[in-house]
Design goal:
The structure is a single chain. By secondary structure, the chain is mainly α. The chain contains 14 helices and no strands. The protein has a domain of 169 residues: Orthogonal Bundle (MetI-like fold), CATH 1.10.3720.10. 75% of the residues lie in helices and 0% in strands. Helix 3 crosses helix 14 and helix 4 runs antiparallel to helix 11. 23% of the residues are buried. The mean pLDDT is 85.
Length: 271
């Protein structure tokens, strides 16, 4: 009886806490569907008295949010492609022996100690010499490889038994088959965690695209939202619509991969 009461109490606290935390997001989403007059009404209304999609239509027809959305999706797609390379690198550091491995890995770790803002100027100068400034390639390339991803994946893959890999090699499996059919399925928890971190980082990319790109046709949603707040500061509901476009895809991704994230935490705790 005591355990049941404790479980009910903890569940109630989590539900109430989760609802309180989500109130700003619910308010933001509902406000994006209100006419501007109602969004500024005092006292405010929680549920829209009149639903309207005019702000979303305005975002994608008059304010180039369609272009910003496509640019952001391109960056996210290549960031996920880069995550595959990071996973391969982490697997190589964890399971392969080669000369200078420890020195190279220490070099990778050393880059984690350098703030991203410090490396922006050298990277920009390199890209400028290559003629890649104000291009999508210039925005994408620096984000393909992440030292933190390599480190975290390498730490996880050290827990995979070497005997499993050796057995697959004895059975005649090639290295790419071992990686994609054995290592990747076993690494789903850590890859799910890295995928959502990579997605959020690429989705929210703001400073680097703003530095590299001079053409608004290359701007991302984050940059577009900042422009929206500056150019349409008086339109509260329009800003809420732009913020909703930014937030909803991240929430959808989290709902998809949350099972693997929890599994990753449990696996890490057990090991």
């Amino acid at each position: 009886m005591k355990n049941r009461f404790e479980k009910l109490f903890v569940t109630s606290v989590l539900v109430v806490g989760g609802f309180l935390v989500s109130i700003p997001f619910i308010w933001m989403i509902l406000s994006s569907f209100k006419p501007e007059r109602e969004a500024r009404m005092m006292p405010p209304t929680f549920w829209p008295q009149e639903f309207t999609f005019e702000h979303y239509i305005n975002l994608f027809t008059n304010l180039n949010f369609g272009t910003y959305f496509i640019n952001t999706m391109i960056i996210v797609l290549f960031a996920m492609f880069g995550l595959l390379f990071n996973t391969m690198a982490g697997y190589g550091f964890a399971k392969f022996k080669f000369k200078g491995k420890e020195v190279v890995f220490l070099g990778v770790l050393a880059t984690m100690m350098i703030p991203a803002q410090v490396s922006m100027i050298p990277v920009y100068l390199l890209l400028n010499q290559m003629g890649l400034t104000n291009t999508m390639a210039g925005i994408i390339l620096p984000g393909l490889i992440a030292a933190f991803n390599i480190f975290l994946i390498r730490q996880f893959m050290t827990t995979i038994p070497n005997e499993l890999i050796e057995s697959a090699r004895i059975d005649g499996a090639k290295e790419f088959r071992i990686f994609f059919q054995i290592i990747i399925p076993l690494s789903k928890p850590i890859i799910a965690v890295q995928a959502i971190l990579t997605f959020v980082g690429a989705w929210n990319s703001f400073l680097w695209p703003l530095i590299v790109a001079n053409d608004q046709a290359l701007y991302t949603l984050s940059v577009g939202l900042a422009l929206l707040q500056g150019q349409h500061s008086s339109s509260f509901a329009l800003q809420m619509a732009g913020a909703t476009v930014m937030v909803i895809p991240v929430l959808i991704l989290f709902l998809i991969v949350q099972r693997y994230i929890v599994e990753g935490f449990n696996t890490t705790g057990i090991k």
